[in-house]
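To: structure desk
From: M.T.
Subject: fold request, one chain
Message: Could you run this one when you get a chance? Sequence is below, nothing fancy, just the single chain.
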Amino acid sequence: MHRPFLFALGLLLAATVSVGQTASADSQILQALLAEVRQLRKDLQITTVASQRVQMLLYRAQLQETVVAGAQQRLDAVHSKLVEAQSGVRHFISENERVEATLNDSQNPADRKELEVMLTRLKGELQSQKAAEQEWLTKEAQATQEFRAEETKLAVLQEQLDQLDKILEQSGRTPTATAIR
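Reply: Done. Structure tokens follow.
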């Protein structure tokens, strides 16, 4: 009579220990799942912030590319005007030399008088062209400086994008969440 009672008591104790171990194992799995969900939430927040930052940098880089293109167009236009002014200077120098040579060769007083008036006018035009050339040289230097400054800003933004790309590439290789086994 004691034997069946002891046997039943043994079975009851074994079942209680077994249920306790199952509850403990379930609790550990639940804790691991909870930690995984928290890590996933954290990773998602980090990814969202990184994505927003990349988008902002891309937008700024696109805007800066537009600014650089505009600065390049202004520089090209100024350079074109400078070339025109330099061509005008060469033209008036050539005309001055031609008129002076004609004046030196001329013996007719009426022709000489007309050539002297023309020479005076050409010298005035030459001075005007030289002043324009100098003005365009100054504008070209300013446009070149502006263009280089805008290019530097673009290079900085592109470097930031490269750094973000490297960081994202490295974080993609390194698993941040621990897997449940």
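Reply (cont.): Residues 177-181 have pLDDT under 50 and may be disordered. Let me know if you need anything else for the meeting.
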